[in-house]
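Exercise 7. Given the encoded structure of a 1176-residue chain, write a plausible sequence.
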């Protein structure tokens, strides 16, 4: 029986699915009983509706669609599709569904903060999309093609104006985007092409997808038409345009960069290329393609050169607390979404106001809104939301005015929202019309704003508008009261009256009129001159803020004892009680009655009227603060400061230290509990004041927590889970709250859940937390105190070249690159199945800029782990490079002369491999390959396909592929050159310099060197020594830091110079040691007699000098140096080439003025001039 029941159930389910998935024709009766989109939006949530409308866009990928009353309407409702409906009705899966009319039945609800219809029981096209292709085979103008219905096949001809991250073509009539080629036919900017594909719309941008290309001609050009920002619209969408003399805003290569003209018009450039020498505020000219995204026109800039610097721009940057933005959606009555994001958020929580909540119910029961606080709250919340929608539409330009507190605990920007079109303050307007209450939490900001808002709420209340109605439709509970009840936390803030300066307990908030209401902590209320409007015991804060000399009665827990000084605190503040009679311990509660006084600025109560009222209640936990919080408000309290570096100490045991934010403070430790030069994880202590300085006083060694040393990320990864670690690394990717961080050893995810962390990709950060796993992904989740930017903009490390076989835990969290990837398929979750040379892999791409059926030259991304498998996660479209056709073979000399960024193919011999640089050369030139991924050996002949680049003057190839053509063909003979030959023509080649003297140390392990023609630099600290001369040095001639340098490859490239016997003797004479003169003279005589000095002129000179002068004369007179020099000159002239070092020594001896003539002046001049023939 059970078996038959199961079969019947399966049949029923299958049959119902078939019915739901099959688009049925819609009868006239069905259409007549349906409502419009506008009517559906006005229908309460929870109501079943049947609605007719047009699909105008996909929403959340394939999972939902946006529906409007017409194809060009801006007011939309989201229809969440059931799984069996997505293939037919989602434009992602069925592009022909876009702009089709549908009838849908479901339940009104909210989906992803958007008004929606969910639980769809039926959905049908009013008329079936026409799959026929009436235009097939006919070539249309692009303007005509733009008017063809989506889904139809079109053929157009046009000029390629962009072919990077996006592809556009245009003709004389219009332009259009090309998306997802059907084949791999190569084409370039400037090609005139014929394109056939399907006409599609993507978020308002018209495009041709699944297209084929035929290149008709090349090297054409299009002159961009000059337009103003307000002229960027549908007419120029897809066309090359130019905007002149516009001001560029903050540059965001991952999001929107805005430009603005003198009239206040602005437009976004999405994912602008990295710009050099251009900063926010500069005046620029921009060449771009006009694009569109969800009804908002944008610009696509193809390359950095398309943004031209004009001038620095005005020094007037406006109000630094205001930011320009565009509304994307209204969430509720006091929350909107906007773009571009600021402070890491795209959400504004309206400041100074509070509207009724909507989150707690899907819909309200209109019969209960007068009696049930939950339904009343929901009703008024929806009213507020609708009113704010009437004030702000998606696409509206706004100005965000932030205050002292920029974001709330959820990371939302706290701001006033000003409508740019007319300057309307929408925060104030919501209050004025009765859709919101004012809500001021101390600090309230400037009093002018405070008074303006409080006047508006009084006006609304006096006129009984909205939530202030005295009919049965008032709000019943103000929003903050509702939240306290709904969340179960109760009311915690005291309420002050800004007129009377009285403050009330949280539960008695209604004692203060709304137009006078400010919320405080009790300490803040007391500190700002407010007094309690209720009976209570004295608080320490009362004593602290009373005039010095006041009689006070205070009670608190002892946190520290120093002699007769007892540091006590309660829930409002801390203070010192000084007594010689008190016998209390840390953790006891005491009561003290006395008079306040100051001891060198430290507030205290000196009294003997003091007693322990409760022993051993336990001390309060320290408050974690920043060094900048050491002050009057924390004096006498127990606090903790993290990431403390102790820098110096004076004779009074005052230690100067800095916290993790670089703020300086003083630690007062008579016990010397800390040491200079050390860093501590946390230091706990009481806040003291002496010698005009607030100081942290640790009580014992237990208050000084040794710093956790910075470990490598690899060490953190291999530690036991739940181990507290501290790591440093560079942010390579950001996904929501996850920061992918890596150092030289490994990568890890740093998840920052608290708002306020503003690190960007390329910043170096430090983070400290305990290791944990999230479904197998290792991460640390530091508090905001324990994560910081230690150096901004250091740059992203080069991605590691891997294959699919390398995707494992060792590379988790690191930036990697995989070459030659073919994408095969994708699932509904944005997981793309792909293959490379070593197997299969998964690409995680929720943004869906990866295309199936495409081969990519490379894909860069971080290696992530989710759903039990490793995946590469590209960060943006810039991380993916579609594989291009291989360029024609060129000589290395020709490749060196190509523009930067040109793809080239060369062949050559591999002559050297260093840590991160490889050199190849052919018969024409040499060039560097930057990186470590060259799988070839010195002496191999290789083919290289790569991209030209100039790196600080060095010509190199990057993003290359290397293939060995022939192994071990041998290294070409090094070219013999002198330092005078050093220059770009020899850069990257193997060369040899002879008779090289190492003159001294340069920077970075380099050496100053010289040969007979000049000076140069040798770059290798392991093969040469200062002061030595080398017969020859062979190496690669490279260029960096503004100089050409010779880089020996091994010790065999360096040949030490061995001097001749006569040179040894001459150098001994020149040293001036008369005790060795006889020995040297005898040595010369032997050289003459045995014929070593074959030249007769030299031999005769030596004989004449040595025999005609008495030994006594010779040994004791200055002639010895003259003789040595004469011998050296003759040796240089006759036996070897003239050497400049001879002249240097002659000049040096002349400078000593020991004798007036060494040789005749005319001979000296001849030698200097280098006329060797005349010198002889």
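Solution.
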């Amino acid at each position: 029986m059970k078996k038959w029941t199961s079969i019947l159930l399966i049949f029923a389910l299958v049959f119902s699915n078939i019915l739901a998935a099959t688009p049925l024709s819609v009868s006239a009766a069905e259409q007549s009983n349906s409502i419009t989109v506008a009517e559906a939006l006005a229908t309460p949530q929870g109501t079943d509706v049947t609605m007719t409308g047009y699909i105008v866009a996909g929403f959340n990928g394939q999972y939902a669609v946006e529906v409007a009353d017409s194809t060009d309407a801006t007011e939309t409702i989201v229809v969440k599709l059931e799984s069996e409906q997505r293939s037919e009705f989602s434009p992602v899966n069925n592009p022909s569904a876009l702009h089709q009319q549908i009838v849908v039945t479901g339940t009104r609800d909210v989906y992803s903060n958007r008004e929606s219809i969910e639980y769809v029981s039926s959905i049908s096209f009013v008329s079936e999309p026409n799959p026929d292709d009436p235009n097939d085979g006919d070539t249309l103008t692009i303007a005509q093609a733009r008017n063809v219905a989506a889904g139809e096949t079109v053929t157009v001809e046009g000029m390629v104006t962009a072919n990077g991250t996006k592809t556009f073509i245009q003709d004389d009539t219009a332009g259009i985007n090309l998306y997802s080629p059907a084949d791999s036919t190569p084409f370039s900017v400037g090609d005139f092409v014929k394109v056939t594909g399907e006409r599609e719309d993507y978020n308002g941008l018209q495009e041709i997808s699944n297209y084929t290309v035929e290149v008709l001609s090349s090297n054409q050009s299009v002159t961009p038409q000059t337009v103003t920002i307000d002229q960027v619209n549908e007419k120029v969408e897809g066309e090359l345009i130019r905007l002149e003399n516009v001001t560029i805003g903050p540059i965001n290569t991952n999001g929107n960069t805005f430009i603005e003209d003198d009239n206040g018009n602005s437009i976004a450039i999405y994912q602008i290329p990295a710009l050099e020498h251009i900063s926010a505020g500069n005046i620029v000219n921009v060449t771009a393609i006009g694009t569109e995204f969800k009804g908002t026109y944008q610009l696509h800039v193809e390359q950095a050169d398309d943004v031209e610097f004009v001038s620095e721009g005005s020094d007037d940057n406006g109000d630094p607390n205001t930011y320009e933005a565009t509304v994307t959606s209204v969430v509720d009555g006091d929350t909107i979404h906007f773009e571009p994001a600021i402070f890491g958020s795209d959400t504004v929580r309206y400041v100074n106001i509070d509207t009724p909540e909507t989150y707690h119910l899907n819909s309200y029961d209109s019969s209960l809104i007068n009696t049930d606080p939950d339904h009343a709250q929901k009703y008024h919340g929806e009213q507020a939301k609708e009113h704010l929608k009437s004030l702000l539409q998606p696409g509206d330009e706004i100005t965000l005015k932030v205050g002292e507190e920029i974001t709330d605990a959820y990371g939302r920007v706290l701001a006033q929202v000003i409508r740019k079109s007319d300057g309307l303050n929408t925060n104030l307007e919501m209050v004025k019309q009765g859709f919101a209450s004012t809500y001021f939490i101390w600090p309230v900001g400037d009093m002018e704003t405070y008074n303006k808002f409080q006047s508006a709420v009084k006006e609304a209340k006096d006129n009984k508008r909205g939530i202030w109605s005295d009919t049965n439709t008032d709000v019943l509970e103000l929003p903050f009261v509702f939240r306290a009840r709904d969340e179960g936390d109760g009311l915690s803030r005291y309420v002050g009256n800004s007129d009377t300066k009285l403050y009330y307990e949280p539960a008695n908030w209604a004692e203060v009129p709304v137009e006078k209401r400010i919320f405080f902590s009790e300490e803040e209320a007391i500190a700002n001159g407010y007094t309690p409007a209720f009976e209570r015991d004295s608080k320490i804060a009362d004593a602290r803020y009373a005039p010095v000399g006041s009689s006070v009665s205070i009670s608190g827990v002892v946190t520290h004892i120093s002699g007769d000084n007892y540091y006590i605190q309660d829930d409002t503040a801390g203070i010192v009680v000084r007594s010689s009679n008190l016998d209390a311990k840390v953790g006891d509660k005491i009561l003290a009655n006395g008079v306040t006084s100051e001891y060198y600025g430290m507030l205290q109560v000196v009294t003997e009227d003091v007693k322990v009222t409760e022993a051993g209640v336990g001390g309060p936990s320290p408050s974690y603060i920043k060094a900048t919080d050491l002050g009057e408000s924390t004096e006498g309290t127990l606090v903790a400061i993290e990431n403390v570096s102790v820098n110096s100490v004076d004779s009074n045991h005052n230690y100067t230290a800095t916290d993790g934010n670089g703020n300086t403070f003083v630690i007062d430790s008579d016990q010397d509990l800390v040491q200079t030069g050390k860093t501590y994880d946390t230091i706990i202590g009481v806040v003291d004041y002496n010698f005009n300085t607030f100081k942290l006083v640790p009580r014992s060694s237990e208050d000084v927590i040794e710093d956790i040393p910075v470990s490598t990320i690899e060490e953190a990864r291999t530690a036991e889970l739940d181990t507290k670690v501290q790591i440093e690394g560079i942010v390579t990717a950001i996904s929501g709250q996850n920061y992918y961080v890596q150092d030289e050893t490994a990568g890890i995810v740093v998840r920052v859940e608290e708002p306020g962390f503003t690190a960007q990709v390329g910043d170096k950060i430090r983070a400290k937390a305990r290791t944990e796993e999230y479904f197998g992904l290792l991460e640390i989740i530091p508090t905001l105190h324990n994560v910081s930017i230690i150096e901004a903009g250091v740059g992203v490390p080069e991605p590691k070249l891997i294959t699919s076989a390398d995707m494992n835990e060792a590379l988790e969290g690191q930036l990697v690159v995989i070459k030659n990837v073919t994408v095969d398929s994708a699932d509904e979750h944005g997981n793309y199945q792909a293959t490379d040379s070593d197997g299969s892999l998964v690409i995680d791409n929720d943004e869906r800029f990866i295309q199936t059926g495409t081969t990519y030259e490379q894909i860069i991304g971080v290696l992530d782990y989710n759903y039990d498998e490793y995946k590469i996660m590209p960060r943006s479209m810039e991380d993916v490079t579609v594989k291009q056709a291989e360029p024609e073979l060129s000589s290395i000399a020709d490749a060196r002369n190509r523009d930067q960024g040109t793809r080239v193919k060369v062949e050559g011999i591999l002559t050297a491999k260093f840590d991160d640089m490889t050199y190849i050369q052919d018969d024409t030139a040499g060039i560097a390959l930057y990186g470590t991924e060259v799988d070839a050996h010195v002496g191999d002949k290789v083919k290289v396909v790569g991209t030209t680049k100039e790196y600080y003057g060095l010509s190199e190839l990057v993003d290359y592929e290397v293939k060995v053509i022939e192994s071990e063909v041998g290294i070409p003979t090094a070219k013999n050159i002198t330092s005078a030959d050093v220059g770009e023509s020899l850069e990257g080649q193997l060369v040899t310099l002879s008779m090289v003297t190492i003159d001294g140390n340069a920077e970075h392990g380099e050496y100053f060197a010289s040969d007979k023609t000049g000076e140069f630099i040798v770059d290798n600290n392991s093969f040469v020594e200062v002061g030595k001369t080398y017969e020859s040095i062979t190496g690669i001639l490279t260029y960096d830091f503004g100089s050409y340098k010779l880089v020996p490859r091994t010790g065999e490239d360096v040949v030490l110079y061995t001097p001749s016997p006569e040179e040894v003797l001459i150098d001994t004479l020149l040293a001036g040691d008369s005790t060795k003169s006889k020995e040297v003279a005898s040595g010369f005589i032997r050289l003459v007699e045995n014929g070593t000095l074959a030249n007769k002129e030299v031999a005769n000179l030596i004989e004449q000098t040595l025999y005609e002068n008495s030994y006594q004369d010779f040994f004791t007179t200055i002639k010895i140096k003259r003789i040595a020099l004469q011998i050296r000159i003759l040796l240089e002239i006759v036996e070897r080439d003239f050497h400049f070092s001879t002249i240097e020594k002659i000049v040096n001896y002349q400078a000593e003025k020991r004798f007036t003539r060494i040789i005749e002046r005319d001979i000296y001049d001849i030698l200097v001039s280098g006329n060797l023939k005349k010198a002889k």
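Remark. The first strand starts at residue 48 and ends at 59. Students should compare their own answers with the one above.
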